[in-house]
Each structure stands twice: as C-alpha cells, then as structure tokens.
From TrEMBL:
Official protein name in the record: Flagellar basal-body rod protein FlgG
Localization (cell): Bacterial flagellum basal body
Name of the coding gene: flgG
Organism field: Methylobrevis albus
Keyword terms: Bacterial flagellum, Cell projection, Cilium, Flagellum
Domain Flagellar basal-body/hook protein C-terminal: 216-260
Length: 261
C-alpha cells in the first residue's frame, strides 16, 4: 500500500526537522550562532490520468487529471543569517559585529575560515587568536608592555606601548562578505568555509559601504528565539504523530483485507 511508504517519508522528514530544531535550541547561548530551518519538497507523482490528455475525437481534454504523490523530503536546511542580540562583556578582546561581515580566521592547514564569534584572546606571542588558538587575520600582535588596548568601530587596533603617551596602531581588523551567506559551509567551532554556492569572500574595512562596524567589549549572541523554536518543535511533533497514525490506519486496512481473503 502506497500510504505506508508515503507516511514513512513524512516521519523521516520530521525526524530531520526535529534534529534541526534541537540543534538550534542546544546552541541558543553559542556566540555568533545562526539558526537553521528545514525546507521540504514533495516527491515525484504517478499520473493515473494525465491532465490535458484528449478524451474524445471532438477534442475534449481532461481538466484536472489524477496524480498520486510519493511523499516528502528535506531539500535544504538554510541558515537564517539575521543579527543576534549584542551583549556587553567588558572583556577588552571581545568584539561584536554590528551589521554585515565575518572575521577572517587563518586555520592551521592554511585555509581561511570565517566567523561571527568575536571572543578573542592573546596567545603566548601576543597574537590575537580565537579561543581555539587560530590566528585572527591579518595577524595582529599586541606587545607585552602594551596597555589601554582599543578596537575602534572601523577595526583599528591601538594600544599605549611602554612609556609612550600616545597610542600606537597595532593593526587593522577587516571583515569579509559573501553574495550568498547561506551558501557558507559550517564546520563546527563557530567557523564557516567559503563554497562555490557562497561565492568568493569580499574583504574590506568595517564601516565601509555595506559592511558592518565593530563594538569592543561586546559579543553577538545566537539569533535563536526560544519561543519560536518550541512552537516549531510542537508542530513537527504533531506532524510526526499524524504520519504515524496514517501508517496505523494503512496497517488496519491491510489487516482487514487479509481477513477477507
């Protein structure tokens, strides 16, 4: 019976949907996390009576036809790249992006990754790094005798070094943009990689046209809305239950048919 297979595809699709929702909820306090959603497509159709086919020599045609679908599938889990809430941390190397753009991160294998997580630290050499020790491009080094470190809205890193009375520019943080942000590949650790779908990175200074600005002593939180996720979870659970009832009903129909034979 086709209903069994159709309902099974519905249950599998909702299992994936629940997995996406649970990952969103699990990361609701992850810095810079961008929530996902599950998008669905119907599967191919069997034409039992094709619409538009001729029904007589006079040229009459079937107006609607008879089509039976094969179920549903998850076709994509796009990320919603909206701005998350910005929270003050009072930590001098914490930086939030307000608006468009990603920090560029140099990976140990030579690749460049991108992130919205601006929770930075200094390593043993004074280089600005992520919490996993990856260098924040282009590689800004803070001297050991530096004090009063500031990161401006346009990404200029300054500090007063030694006995100097005026600040010294230590480097420039830049931001990268993509034509299709949803095309970035998430690799964990709050990092994304460029793909053919995202297009190449377009790098510029914060505050340039269409680029966001930076806010020191702050972090961008996840853009997960708990109430919306719980509502979506309830809807997914109900859809799963309805598909399971279809399987139960189809089984009862098959059982009744078997008893008649």
């Amino acid at each position: 019976m086709k209903a069994l297979n159709i309902a099974a595809t519905g249950m599998m699709a909702q299992e994936t949907n629940v997995s996406v929702i649970s990952n969103n909820i699990a990361n609701m306090r992850t810095t810079g996390f961008k929530r996902q959603r599950a998008d669905f497509q119907d599967l191919f159709y069997q034409n039992l009576r094709r619409q538009g086919s001729q029904t007589s020599d006079a040229g009459t045609v079937v107006p609607a036809g008879v089509q039976v679908g094969s179920g549903v599938r998850v076709v994509a889990t796009p990320r919603i790249m909206s701005q998350g809430d910005i929270e003050r941390t009072d930590k001098e190397y914490d930086v939030a992006v307000r608006g468009e753009g990603y920090f560029s991160i140099q990976m140990p294998d030579g690749r460049t990754a991108y992130t919205r997580d601006g929770g930075f630290e200094l390593d043993a050499t004074g280089t600005l790094v992520t919490e996993d020790g990856y260098t924040v491009a282009p590689g800004i080094v803070v001297p050991v005798n530096a004090r009063d470190i500031t990161i401006s809205q346009i990404g200029v890193v300054q500090a007063t070094v030694g006995n100097d009375t005026t600040p010294t520019v230590l480097g420039q943080i830049q931001l990268s943009r993509f034509v299709n942000k949803a095309g970035l590949e998430a690799i964990g650790d709050n990092l994304f990689l460029e793909t053919a779908a995202s297009g190449p990175a377009q790098t510029a200074n914060p505050g340039d046209e269409s680029y966001g600005t930076l806010l020191q002593n702050h972090l961008e939180m996840a853009n997960v809305v708990p109430v919306s996720e719980l509502s979506a979870l309830i809807a997914a659970q109900r859809a799963y239950e309805m598909n399971s009832r279809i399987i139960r009903a189809a089984d009862e129909m098959l059982s009744a048919t078997a008893q008649l034979s």
